[in-house]
Design a protein that fits this description.
heterotetramer, A mainly alpha, B mainly alpha, C mainly alpha, D alpha+beta, A: mainly alpha, two-stranded antiparallel ribbon, globular, D: Four Helix Bundle (Hemerythrin (Met), subunit A), 4 strands
């Protein structure tokens, strides 16, 4: 184990140690301080990792560390990170101090429990992205549930019990099926014709899983998606999300939106596609249709919400539809856009939830009919609100835009008709312009509901609840701590909006590798020759689309 | 002694093998006793009788064990009957203590008097 | 109309394209020539873009530290002035070769041998320069105006106003100067955002918030079209960078095919690009059916209306089409649709403008109407005409708005023309009156003495000479008459006649009789004078380079990718003996352009549109003018609120009412689009709540039902369990026995 | 595989037996004849079974069980039927003793005489007496000959039909399973001699003693022990025994002076392991841990029984019920929000 791997291990286990410290300390007033310092300190190893990360080899797992656990079953504690995991780990670590700081004035009771679970969640989030072992991934995947469950159950608002139970049972049921599918893949790969012995190593599984027949892959895909689609959440498996988001405490909502939902898309990217590439290719249009329905459907529902948190929650459903659409396009632009979407959604929606949390602390209501027109009273708050809303709308120059552009372009590109005709850019799965057109309406709908929200909550004449009185400790407008929690997110939004190239370069290798897996499994030509230049050089590449899928 | 010889008394005939056709009637008796014990356990309401019926089933098992042991010319069957006896004794002690306890609570020996598991 | 492409019969005219080196050169040769060399430009060009952004940042900092002076205004004016000077020097130093300036990498996605590249860099050619000149110039002037106009908000929204102002100019610069379609889109959405922020400047007014929201959302619909167009461009041509796109040989082949009338050789996707981009242009430039946001946008402060909603932002659509003219050329239906939509919009907006009483809204509708002219010009293959009209319109419409703004500012927000009269004669209002007259004359297009006449004439003439579009020409002429009428309706009622003024809703005094209008200060007057002067001086532009390029603007356009000069226009010039000798051939198959009133089209045009404008003015004078010379001895108005038109309106039945209510277009949209969508949203919401969540809950409930069903088996009776146990054992034994016997039998 | 008994006959016997038991089980109806008929049917079934088994064996020329088997079997089954059909628990217990005694007879037939007597001592002597104590403790003495004074607990069987059916299905299945597999039982791995006397090798001292008693061994001689295992060097199959003479040699050292092999002719009749030897050896040598466990079980049972049967000073049921009701109403009140005053004290408690 070199020192870099140690950093990664620290990122996973240090928060857990801190959680134990918090949980067993006698003084509950220290809980906040310990949690905050811990999460802040974690930035150091994260930065070191970022510094040491070899961007040129983004498709390989770096800082790998593996100790054997149960040899005969191939169980290892095996971690490492490639470029995609790296970005998501950075996001998780960055959010740590933000959510802790945002909870300072909101959590007044049971602080030890709250911060301890928050820290456990922090560790589990890093673990899930760093896992190179299927079982470790699954353990961390499920272990994110438990802290979140407690956070909602103990620290949520009025309807928290029902929300927490639905959240837990729904996602847990889904992930049970995911586990079954994973076990099947492991069993298959352990077969004599394949790897030959039990292994849970994700790269190894990826190497052999595509040998499964289409039928096998379809079932595996179904199982994997059962868990991941619920987590994303993909229409129509999203109904737990608005409830959970609405009832969760601010930090819970932020983490839920920013990281936990990404487990779904990350899972699809990391498992569903490489483990069942042929089936994913086959069913990509169906998945895309679901995501588009989600975009429009959830967007329209946002538009008639009066509960601001529910609105933002539904907007997550709508937004992540784009991410899944990008995945379903199965090409470089799509994957890149999708990964960008994961990050940018984390920043902008995380920001929105923070804003709502700060407002809620002062007004104790989320009803936009009761409270509104806050721009005159809380100008700084309103400025940030408009900013994050615009980031969420996908305004160019801010973070939402690059990812949205790439996702839409990707669905344009992956057109079966053009594939057959040998038109330029004709590759990926068989979506097409209509997918892009319908998904594109999501842009308009996003503007509709977000401006509706901003118009109600920020602008217009001031409306406050009748029994409103000033918060005992918080000022009318945001205080310095709150501004400090928002600023990193805002800067991140701007940076990602103006420098998407940095991210695109980072994930480029990894994305290309995934595309190759899909192409290999479907018997498509490698990517290069199929990009055609439309000069009449007589070079007319023949594309074999669906027919080329090998069913060996 | 000769009269006993002609009757093939067990002790004297021991070292000889016992054919399956001799074993079968013992097993049948054992099965019948077991079934009767079972029926008794299922039908009688008196808890004491029910426990008696379990003893009956123990008995049936013991008979089968000894018969098989004899068939195999080994002593394991008998050894196991000793353990069955132990368990039966322990069970009798516990069960009867329980019966006494339960009887004190409900003034009845009926097993149906205890329905707390009713779902 | 849709199917008959303008280009369909142009094959023999291909050689008429300016810049073509010979008769056998393909039509795309000019385009290829334009982007043959693209240099790397000097870095100081970036100042033009980033100085306004610096203004935004500085003003945001002022806002953060709570500045309560005019510092934001002066900062903005200074930065914009420097940007304008930089633009001018860019114009002066331009040597005819387009160049790009790279700021930093933005999108850079590589896969295989291909890439998706869209950098934060800028593309400079003459079209860009033309636009940037008036964007930065007018930006500076209007910032100056706003420094006085917004002074009542110092310390409150002043910083906010100017930071949004700076951001707007930055976004507009990105839009115009960007070297790729995503930069254009960035600017496009950026100006939309600024428009949103500035329309909603008075955010406590619900109407302002609603108008801002409407503007953004309606624009977003257009933006969707634009975005899809961009994506389709990338997918089809493999690039979104101008230089690469316009030098793309596929595009050149398409153009050649289009000019040859062979649209079947152009794939459908390529033709769709133009149609999609067009939707974006319609949204931003407020064309039918997406024009509804612009009149509402007058809720914003007047400088905003002048800069964003009259002079610059709304011309972005024109810029878009001009910039992508090669792409539009290859689409069979795009340009005819543009032309007709422009015409319809022009007429529709003019009819609505006639019936409005709010002078700012009248100006707004006139903007929509004039934009319609520009689109008609674009559609009629006259980018020059459209661009020229953009330029003149920028000056005179900004002037008109600012004059109206001065009135609004001075009369406490009063904008109703029935409540104002004779303003010009009030103390300190003379300059406003005079400049307003200049602006009105330009808008009305009075012949020879106004620049508006020349630019509009260029478009009108085009309609008359283009085969099959004479009807459009007449509609546009009719619209011009209406324009003259409603323009001077404002002038006659508000600026001349007996002095009368009622304060508007911003007046907070108790007694309106003590109301004293607040005459404009030096900043406002200066800006008005400068703009009026510019409007007049713009006449000269029609004469510069007239022989070769049909005016200075023509020379600017001709030197860019937007130039596909109408063969008709050139032949028109040829008819005057001034044009290219090649043009004499005229459009084969159509013969010489038709005659108007027995004259050649151009001459006839002057007569028709000039007379029309004068006629419109006279009608306005008759119905609205005051008694005496101020009403040209035609008018009979004695009171501010009463005029001859009232009687006519009473007799006309519901029509004036309908027109005043904008033909209920907003209400129709509300009824057929918004309400159903809202109902659908509610239905979705209930589906989500009841059906989907209900299903989920049902699945959660099923185990309970199952438990309820099997619960009686847990009777609690010991022997019950024993019976089931024994029974189960029996069944198990049976099964095992059967299996064992079977297996034994098989073995 | 030959069928020991025809399945049809077996199932028929089971059916008859089931019907008989069902009839014989206690019920309130005052028709003793039914019970008798039931008993008769059971008897027919058992007779049929015995006949079928005997005939089957006789047909095949196979050996039959000892004739004493039949009375013992008859008594055992008949008594066990009475155990479950008799309405009075005391009689049931006594019939159970009868069953045990009959079983013991069969144990003796199966040459398990030690177990037979152990069974009588432990079961009949100890366990059943305990049962009788408890029965007498918990049941009032009968007041008459009829059933009228009996509780439902004793007088009425619970679902006799179903239980009989299940029980005899079990018989049918078990016997079918046994009889179909019985022919494939592996033969004993030991020879008869081994089975009988293999244990002697483990008991060298006993062998010494018997040989000395029988006069086979001269003074100073003894059976040779294996050096490593300590087993006596006896070949039970060949009936040979190695013996050795121990003593001081010429150098005065202790050692083996001579060895000799005793042949089969020298093997005394008395040199044989009896049943108890074998059982004891098996118990101690092969199952030591289980003995420990059995001890623990018995100990725990003793403790458990002591604890359970201890008389508690408990609240009267009625009092308990009253308290429970009170608590219930208190919580009900709380849920309505008026059972507690503001400090959270139950408001009804002081009244």
């Amino acid at each position: 184990m070199n020192s870099d791997s140690l950093m990664l291990i620290i990122l996973i286990f240090f928060p857990v140690v801190a959680a134990l410290q918090i949980a067993f300390s006698k003084n509950s007033d220290n809980a906040y301080r310990v949690a905050f310092i811990t999460s802040l300190v974690l930035l150091l190893p994260a930065l070191k990792l970022l510094d040491r990360f070899d961007f040129a080899a983004g498709d390989t797992a770096q800082f790998g560390y593996s100790i054997s656990w149960v040899d005969s079953l191939g169980l290892n504690f095996s971690i490492g990170m490639d470029s995609v995991s790296m970005l998501l780990i950075m996001l998780s670590v960055l959010l740590g101090p933000i959510v802790v700081a945002a909870s300072k004035s909101a959590i007044t009771k049971d602080k030890r429990m709250y911060y301890a679970w928050l820290m456990v969640l922090q560790g589990a989030m890093v673990g899930v992205f760093a896992a190179q072992d299927l079982l470790l991934f699954y353990i961390c995947f499920e272990f994110t549930l438990l802290p979140m469950f407690v956070l909602i159950r103990k620290f949520g608002s009025t309807n928290r019990v029902a929300a927490s139970i639905k959240f837990f049972l729904y996602t847990f049921t889904g992930s049970m099926l995911t586990l079954a599918a994973m076990v099947y893949v492991v069993w298959f790969v352990a077969g004599p014709d394949q790897f030959g012995s039990w292994t849970l190593d994700i790269p190894t599984l990826t190497k052999y899983a595509w040998h499964m027949s289409l039928t096998q892959q379809s079932w595996v895909l179904l199982g994997l998606l059962a868990g991941f689609a619920v987590k994303v959440p993909l229409f129509p498996f999203h109904t737990w999300l608005p409830l959970a988001h609405t009832e969760a405490p601010t930090a819970g909502s932020v983490i839920l939106a920013a990281v936990l939902l990404k487990l779904g898309t990350y899972g699809i990217y990391r498992f569903a596609i490489p483990l069942a590439p042929e089936a994913f290719f086959e069913y990509a249009p169906h998945i895309a249709v679901l995501s588009i329905i989600g975009i429009i459907y959830a967007g329209l529902i946002c538009w008639v919400q009066t509960d601001i948190k529910k609105l933002v929650a539904y907007s997550s459903v709508s937004h992540l539809g784009f991410a899944v659409l990008g995945m379903a396009a199965l090409n470089v632009t799509g994957f890149s856009g999708s990964i960008l979407y994961m990050l940018s959604h984390g920043l902008s929606t995380g920001g929105l939830f923070l804003m709502i949390g700060f407002m809620y602390e002062r007004y104790h209501t989320r009803d936009m009919n009761t409270v509104g027109g806050l721009a005159s009273k809380m100008p700084i708050w309103a400025t940030f609100m408009v900013f994050f809303a615009m980031a969420s709308v996908g305004l160019p120059g801010l973070n939402g835009f690059p990812s949205e552009v790439l996702c839409l372009i990707s669905s344009f590109q992956s057109d079966a008709a053009w594939t057959a005709a040998g038109e330029p850019g004709a590759w990926g799965s068989s979506l097409g312009p209509w997918f892009a057109v319908f998904a594109g309406t999501g842009m308009v709908i996003a503007a509709m509901y977000l401006l509706y929200m901003v118009g109600k909550i920020c602008f217009g004449p001031l409306r406050e609840p009748q029994d409103h009185h000033e918060h005992e400790t918080l000022p009318t407008d945001l205080n310095l701590r709150e501004i400090a929690t928002l600023t990193p997110l805002a800067l991140g939004c701007i940076y990602f909006g103006l420098q998407p190239t940095v991210l695109l370069d980072t994930v480029s290798d990894q994305v290309n590798a995934t595309v190759r897996i899909v192409e290999q499994a479907n018997g498509l030509e490698p990517a290069e020759p199929r990009i055609m230049h439309t000069d009449d050089s007589g070079h007319e590449p023949v594309i074999n689309g669906n027919e080329g899928a090998s069913h060996d | 002694m000769h009269a006993f010889d002609s009757l093939q008394l067990a002790q004297l005939a021991f070292p000889t093998e016992m054919s399956t056709s001799v074993l079968a009637p013992y097993l049948f008796v054992s099965a019948a006793m077991f079934a009767i014990g079972l029926i008794g356990f299922l039908t009688r309401k008196n808890m004491i009788i029910m426990f008696l019926c379990t003893e009956l089933m123990f008995q049936a098992a013991g008979l089968a064990l000894i018969a098989f042991g004899r068939h195999h010319l080994g002593s394991d069957g008998q050894t196991f009957v000793i353990f069955v006896l132990c368990v039966a004794a322990a069970e009798a002690a516990m069960a009867l203590a329980l019966v006494v306890l339960l009887f004190r609570h409900r003034e009845s020996l009926s097993a149906s008097a205890w329905k707390e598991l009713n779902g | 109309m849709m199917t008959a492409s303008l280009l369909n019969n142009l094959a023999p005219l291909a050689m008429l394209a300016p810049g073509s080196s010979g008769e056998d050169a393909p039509a795309s040769a000019h385009l290829a020539h334009m982007v043959e060399h693209v240099d790397t430009g000097p870095k100081w060009i970036l100042l033009i873009v980033f100085l306004p952004l610096l203004g935004f940042v500085l003003n945001a900092i002022y806002a953060a530290i709570g500045n309560k002076s005019k510092l934001p205004a002066w900062t903005t004016i200074a930065l914009l002035a420097v940007a304008f000077l930089a633009t001018v020097s860019m114009f002066l130093s331009y040597d005819g070769t387009p160049y790009t300036v790279h700021a930093f990498d933005w999108f850079n996605l590589h896969y295989g041998e291909k890439s998706f590249v869209a950098n934060f860099s800028f593309y400079i050619d003459k079209l860009t320069i033309l636009w940037m000149l008036f964007v930065t110039g007018l930006g500076t002037l209007i910032a100056l105006y706003a420094s006085e106009y917004m002074s009542h908000d110092i310390g409150a929204g002043y910083c906010r106003f100017f930071s949004a102002f700076g951001l707007f100019v930055f976004s507009m610069s990105c839009l115009v100067m960007g070297d790729n379609m995503l930069m254009l889109y960035l600017g496009w959405e950026g100006v939309g955002l600024c428009s949103y922020l500035l329309i909603g400047y008075f955010y406590k007014k619900p109407s302002a918030v609603a108008a801002a929201k409407k503007a953004f959302i309606v624009n977003r619909i257009g933006d969707l079209g634009l975005a899809l167009g961009i994506y389709l461009t990338f997918v089809h041509f493999g690039t979104v960078e101008y230089a690469a796109l316009f030098s793309n040989e596929t595009l050149h082949h398409y153009i050649d095919a289009a000019v040859a009338g062979d649209f079947s050789a152009i794939p459908g996707e390529a033709q769709w690009i133009a149609l999609l981009l067009m939707v974006g242009a319609f949204g931003k430039s407020a064309q039918f059916p997406l024009y509804v946001w612009l009149p509402d946008a007058m809720e914003g402060p007047t400088p905003v209306s002048a800069l964003i909603h009259a002079a610059t932002m709304v011309t972005a659509g024109v810029y878009l089409i001009a910039r992508f003219y090669p792409v539009f050329l290859v689409s069979e239906n795009a340009l005819p649709i543009v032309a007709w939509i422009g015409t319809i919009t022009a007429l529709l907006a003019a009819t609505i403008g006639m019936a409005q009483f709010d002078i700012k809204r009248i100006m707004a509708y006139s903007t929509v109407s004039q934009l319609g002219y520009m689109f008609a010009g674009l559609g009629l293959l006259s980018t020059t005409g459209a661009a020229f009209h953009v330029l003149t319109h920028a000056f005179f419409k900004a002037l008109l708005f600012l004059a109206c703004g001065a009135v609004m500012h001075g009369f406490a927000g009063q904008l109703d023309l029935r409540k104002l009269s004779g303003i010009s004669w009030m103390k300190g209002w003379g300059i406003v009156g005079i400049t307003m007259l200049v602006g009105c004359m330009n808008l009305a297009g009075l012949p020879y003495i106004t620049s508006g006449f020349y630019s509009k004439d260029m478009i009108l003439a085009e309609a008359f000479v283009t085969p099959g579009y004479r009807l459009m020409g007449w509609i546009l002429v009719f619209t011009a008459i209406l324009t003259a009428y409603y323009t001077f309706r404002v002038f006659f009622r508000v600026f001349v006649g007996d002095q009368h003024a009622e304060p508007g809703e911003d007046f907070h005094g108790d007694d309106t009789s003590h109301f004293h209008p607040h005459a404009p200060g030096w900043a406002i007057n200066t800006v008005l004078i400068v703009l009026a002067t510019c409007s007049v001086l713009a006449i000269s532009l029609a004469w510069i380079d007239k022989s070769e390029y049909h005016g200075w603007v023509g020379s600017m356009v001709a030197d860019s990718t937007a130039s596909f000069h109408s063969p008709y226009a050139v032949s028109l010039a040829a008819a005057h003996g001034e044009g290219d000798p090649h043009a004499v051939a005229g459009p084969v198959g159509y013969g010489a352009p038709g005659k108007i009133l027995g004259m050649d089209p151009h001459g006839g045009m002057i007569v028709v549109s000039g007379l029309g404008a004068i006629f419109g003015v006279l009608v306005a004078a008759f119905f609205h003018g005051p008694k005496g010379w101020q009403g040209l001895f035609l008018g009979g108005r004695t009171e501010a609120g009463k005029c001859r038109m009232d009687a006519v309106a009473r007799r006309a039945g519901p029509i004036p009412r309908l027109a005043e209510n904008k033909w209920f277009v907003d209400e129709i949209y509300e009824a057929i689009l918004v309400t159903p969508l809202r109902i659908l949203a509610h239905i979705f919401h209930w589906i989500d709540k009841l059906l989907l969540d209900g299903l989920v809950n049902l699945f959660g409930f099923l185990p309970r039902v199952f438990a309820w069903i099997i619960r009686p088996s847990q009777s609690g009776v010991l022997q019950g369990y024993a019976v089931s146990m024994a029974g189960g054992l029996a069944i198990l034994l049976f099964v095992v026995l059967v299996i064992v016997l079977r297996a034994g039998g098989a073995a | 595989m030959e069928q020991i008994i025809s399945p049809i006959a077996l199932y028929l016997i089971c059916a008859i037996g089931a019907a008989g038991i069902a009839l014989a089980l206690p019920r309130r109806a005052r028709t003793r004849s039914l019970e008798y008929a039931g008993g008769l049917l059971v008897a027919i079934a058992l007779g049929g079974a015995a006949l079928a088994l005997g005939l089957g064996a006789a047909d095949a020329g196979n050996p039959m069980p000892n004739v004493f088997f039949y009375p013992f079997a008859l008594v055992a089954i008949g008594a066990s039927v009475r155990v479950i059909t008799h309405k009075r628990p005391v009689y049931s217990a006594l019939y159970f003793i009868m069953t045990i005694i009959a079983s013991c007879g069969m144990y003796i037939l199966l040459s398990a005489e030690f177990m037979a007597f152990a069974l009588i001592i432990i079961y009949a002597g100890a366990i059943l007496i305990t049962y009788l104590f408890v029965i007498m403790l918990a049941t009032q003495a009968p007041t008459g000959d009829g059933d009228d004074d009996l509780d439902d607990v004793d007088a009425v069987a619970r679902e006799p039909m179903l239980a009989s059916a299940i029980g005899f299905v079990m018989i049918g299945l078990i016997t079918a399973a046994m009889f179909s597999g019985i022919g494939e039982l592996p033969e004993s791995k030991m020879t008869q001699a081994q089975a009988a006397d293999a244990v002697l090798a483990h008991l060298p001292k006993k062998v010494d003693k018997i040989l000395e008693r029988e006069g086979v061994l001269a003074d100073g001689w003894r059976v040779v022990r294996d050096h490593e295992t300590g087993l006596a060097m006896i070949d039970v199959d060949a009936r040979t025994i190695q013996i050795e003479l121990l003593g001081e040699d010429e150098h005065g050292e202790e050692g083996v002076l001579a060895t000799r092999m005793l042949g089969a002719e020298d093997w005394p009749d008395a040199l044989a392991a009896d049943n108890i030897d074998r059982l004891g050896f098996n118990l101690m040598h092969d199952h030591p841990i289980m003995i420990e466990l059995a001890g623990v079980i018995l100990l725990m049972a003793m403790l458990g029984a002591t604890v359970l049967a201890r008389k508690h000073t408990e609240l009267e049921e009625a009092l308990k019920a009253a308290q429970a009701r009170k608590l219930g109403t208190m919580f009900d009140d709380k849920s309505h929000g008026n059972g507690f005053d503001d400090d959270g004290h139950p408001s009804g408690g002081h009244a």
